[in-house]
Design goal:
This protein has helices at about 5-10, 30-45, 115-130, 155-160, 215-225, 250-255, 260-270, 280-285, 330-340, 365-375, 395-400, 425-440; strands at about 50-55, 60-65, 75-80, 100, 105, 135-145, 170, 180-185, 185-200, 205, 290-295, 305-310, 310-320, 345-355, 355, 380-385, 385-390, 405, 420-425. It is an alpha/beta fold and about 450 residues long.
Length: about 450
């Protein structure tokens, strides 16, 4: 009796589970060579027509593979093999680098973002190779720097543009929303990361001198507070909204149809404060944000050290509408701080990338939406113009001129980047079924 795709997926995903056992942290330069070598070998063993490890543009290796299928249509898959660090380890209920299944849920670092997505795509490839071949041509671009800003992605896509030609791009993955609907995502927001630094003395001072001397942490927190209206959540940086392109009527219709239940989101994410906006769906899709990633200043060890710190720094990230230029942000922040009386605050640009949004009228968008409804039901799917997260989709969408759609194995509580990262095996099976249907329809 022929094994169904569902049975095959459940029985064979572990053929590739060693990928989750690699500790692959790009930020710490850990596990890059071992992981990229492993992926290279998997593509070879799966019978790829070409497998290459690209290192010609610098940075961590990119693994490229292509497979010939039964039609002239070509799908390009984007994935990444680097993950976030697993710390703090004491918050994990399982070993983050040992894939563990409990009650139908698979736990491991990177199982949602993004190694798990690659594992289940490899499982589908293996199924095709054992059941008559691929329905379309398939290409893979698997990089190792996504979690540190994909700094070399533009160089690689430009240098290898001919090899990357395709008809559509299927992005790294996706997830079901809090209402249990599959979210199909047509792009991503941009991001700009900066660092602010304040120095108020040549050395740390005795805290008694707070009677007359201003500390760096106080100076920095006042500067930070001047950049946002705490009542409305509006960013108070002149010019920041100038390059935000308004949504079209069609795009706004998609946004209005999104499922966003404030009570569900609050419970699922454990929020303890009210939402910053009365229109969270619009804000997620097309409005910039300002976030303080962390503040560093003074004594933070056990006990007390009565010191007045001379130096304070803060790292900020701005999530940007797909039309915005991330390189504008540092200068805009510097000018606003100076206008607010904080011209002594140093602003340094760290990393950033533009966003991208697929054309909602493209035939591939219609094909994927219709295929998803056949798998998940008419009410089981939502189309998201672009993710609120960031990623290098612009390097493929803009340069190659292709629609970029993301859908995958995650859930609303997959905890990507956090402790106990997870996916549900039933969700993964559904996602593989959808992927199969999309390729068959093409």
């Amino acid at each position: 009796m022929t094994e169904s795709l569902k049975e095959y997926t459940l029985n064979h995903w572990q053929d590739f589970s060693d990928l989750l056992r690699f500790k692959t942290i790009a930020a710490q330069d850990i596990g890059i060579a071992e992981t990229s070598d492993w992926i290279f070998q998997q593509f070879k063993q799966l019978g790829a027509d070409h497998v290459e490890k690209w290192t010609d543009q610098g940075g961590n290796p990119v693994i490229f593979a292509d497979f010939n299928g039964k039609s002239d249509q070509t799908v390009l898959f984007y994935n990444h093999y680097d993950t976030q660090p697993a710390e703090p380890l004491d918050q994990w209920a399982t070993d983050p680098f040992e894939p563990t299944v409990k009650d139908g849920t698979l736990f491991a670092r990177g199982v949602d973002d993004d190694k798990g997505e690659l594992i289940f795509r490899l499982t589908l490839l293996k199924y095709y190779q054992e059941h008559g071949g691929l329905p379309v041509n398939v290409k893979f671009y698997v990089e190792g720097e996504e979690e540190i800003g994909s700094r070399h992605v533009i160089k690689y896509t430009k240098a290898h543009q001919q090899q990357l030609q395709a008809d559509a791009v299927i992005w790294e993955g996706g997830a079901k929303n809090a209402a249990g609907q599959l979210a199909i995502t047509g792009g991503l927001k941009g991001i700009s990361c900066i660092e602010l630094a304040v120095t108020t003395a040549n050395a740390d001072l005795h805290s008694s001198k707070a009677a007359y001397a201003e500390s760096a942490p106080w100076r920095l927190t006042k500067a930070l507070a001047s950049l946002r209206d705490d009542t409305t959540g509006q960013i108070k940086i002149e010019g920041l909204y100038d390059d935000v392109t308004a949504l079209t009527a069609t795009e706004n219709t998609f946004v209005e149809q999104l499922a966003f239940d404030t009570a569900q989101v609050t419970q699922a994410e454990g929020l303890t404060r009210p939402l910053l906006t009365a229109k969270p769906k619009q804000a997620l899709a097309n409005e910039p944000t300002i976030n303080i990633e962390g503040i560093t200043a003074g004594y933070q060890e056990a006990g007390v050290k009565t010191v007045l710190p001379r130096l304070a720094t803060a790292k900020l990230d701005f999530r940007l509408a797909p039309s915005q230029d991330p390189t504008r942000i540092p200068d805009l922040v510097h000018k606003q701080l100076a206008k607010n009386g904080f011209d002594d605050v140093k602003v340094t640009y760290l990393v950033g990338q533009p966003g991208y949004r697929s054309d909602v009228t493209h035939p591939f968008v219609k094909l994927v939406n219709e295929s998803a409804k056949a798998i998940y039901g008419d009410d089981g799917v939502e189309y998201v113009l672009n993710s609120a997260g960031a990623g290098p989709a612009y390097a493929f969408g803009r340069l190659l001129g292709l629609p970029v759609l993301g859908f995958g194995i995650g859930n609303a509580n997959s905890r990507a980047h956090g402790a106990n990262e997870n996916v549900k095996l039933n969700d993964a099976v559904q996602a593989v079924s959808l992927l199969d249907r999309v390729l068959q329809q093409l």
